[in-house]
Here is the input.
Amino acid sequence: MISLAGRDILHTWGKFVFTGVGLGLLIGVTLVMAGVYRGMIDDGKALLDNSGADLWVVQKDTLGPYAESSSVYDDLWRGIRTIPGVAAAANITYLTMQVAKGDKDVRVMVVGIMAGEPGLPGWPPYLVAGRQITRGHYEAVADIATGFKLGDTLTIRRNHYTVVGLTRRMVSSGGDPMVFIPLKDAQEAQFLKDNDAILMQRRRTEANPAFNRPGVPGLLDAVIASQTTNNYVNAVLVRIAPGYTPQEVAEPIRRWKRLTVYDRAQMEGILIGKLIATAAKQIGMFLVILAAVSVAIIAFIIYTLTMDKIREIAVLKLIGTRNRTIAAMIMQQALALGLIGFAVGKITATFAAPLFPKYVLLISQDAIVGFIAVMVISALASLAAIRMALKVDPAEAIGG
Amino acid sequence: MSGHGIRIEGLKKRYGSGETAVDALKGVDMQVAPGEVVGLIGPSGSGKSTLLKCLGAVITPTAGRMTLGNDVIYDDGWKVRDLRALRRDKIGFVFQAPYLIPFLDVTDNVALLPMLAGVPNDESRRRALELLTALDVQHRARAMPAQLSGGEQQRVAIARGLINRPPVILADEPTAPLDSERAMAVIRILNEMAQKYETAIIVVTHDEKIIPTFKRIYHIRDGVTYEEAGEGKSIT
Here is the structure.
């Protein structure tokens, strides 16, 4: 038996191809949306992977340092380092801000890393160009997505930093590329005010009789000094020694240091389950709407194509064509349309994904699920046309 | 083929019920022998289409008896379980417009019926080409219907009606869209095919040009048929 659907498609290939291309662009958008969601998850995982930590020690009862603000003293790491099972511990600060880049600025996550050596938690694990930070101040390692090049000067608050190294895929959970600078600079940058504000603050402090007592010399200077220094970091990153479980190490930190400790699984839960949950729901809604629009388009096209063939269908039924043959013809056409649409959509998504400002991760699993969904949607969309075709009376082929 | 061609006795068809009931056929008697071509003539609303639909097994008569070849297909109820297969295997249709399937070429339009019956594609196409050759359209075998003239399309439609060697062909005004010359050619072909394949052919027509060519004519008026001898003019 010949393929009636195949012959009809070949006969009206232009209509099928153009409809398929239109549908494909819609499917392409759907795949990209799924890719955006995957990219967000991957950004979150990349953030955790690149931190090099097994445990995140944060302010008690907060979801820091990524989903909530967290502030802990910068000397806590020393005590944590002595706890059995801790191989390495390092302070870290995170600050999302606009960093000047020539006449423009770029949104980055500034990461303050503790003095030490590559391999310490928080440090960029690899570079694609240049070297790691070796000086205590005014050097930076930037992700290439920032657009900075080796030797460029970037400005954070009032300080200028020279880019000495470039790294890749170092992003925040929001997809902002990272710039690594020395911890002390980052601590200063978090609270550094402009000169006018500093003068105003000093005046206010001087005018406060509690801080400017005539009989207590040096008190005012001490208070002012404390106001201009920052002894806090956002978290302490901990790497566990071989042979210890995260829980074994986390428990004494919680108990004795009165801090909250998250392991990798908990941190993934916070990033994916809380931080990007709303965005994921938003994307989910878009996917539902796009699927509904796809159903409507395929159903409309197949219904219209079937309407155009009512007389032929009546003739086919009159000359003895089985209903299932006619139904198969219509469903095969819908599936073919879906197939063309998916192929166009996949190609479109593949080529369009790198053009998006945020990371779009297209994975095979989504493509397979998408393909199955498109085929199911196509089959469902053909039902209305099949129902209409099966209702056609073969007597319609006979005049009168 | 053997037997009676097609024989109809006391065929009735009533639409609706009660006071609004309409008797479209009030007891039609008709017999067409194998190899014979008869005309069925009547004004609009006389019951021609209803009779054709009953013969074509697309609507169910109310009463009567129909015999196709040696088989009784209707006797106050269908005696055939699969009407679709009956239409496919035992009845050929030729319509006023050819109604060829636009996305199949000429050969496959004709070969489709045996394919639907499960005959292998190659064999179906061989049989189709044989018929197309008999109807002198073999040179358009690979053409699409839209590329054919009206006369060629109608010949392909006749080939489709004949492909399964049905005992009867129902032709519904097959010459209506054609000029005199082509109309006569179609009637000549129908006569040749009727004799060659021993097929009984009923031609419903209003076409004054072709009426004189029938040897027998059935007039239908108000749901009743009257038989009349035709002129049986030779077709040139």
User: Anything to note?
Assistant: Residues 37 and 191 of chain B are 6 Å apart (CA to CA). Chain B has six helices and ten strands. The mean pLDDT of chain B is 88. The helical segments of chain B are 48-55, 83-90, 106-116, 121-134, 150-162, 180-197.
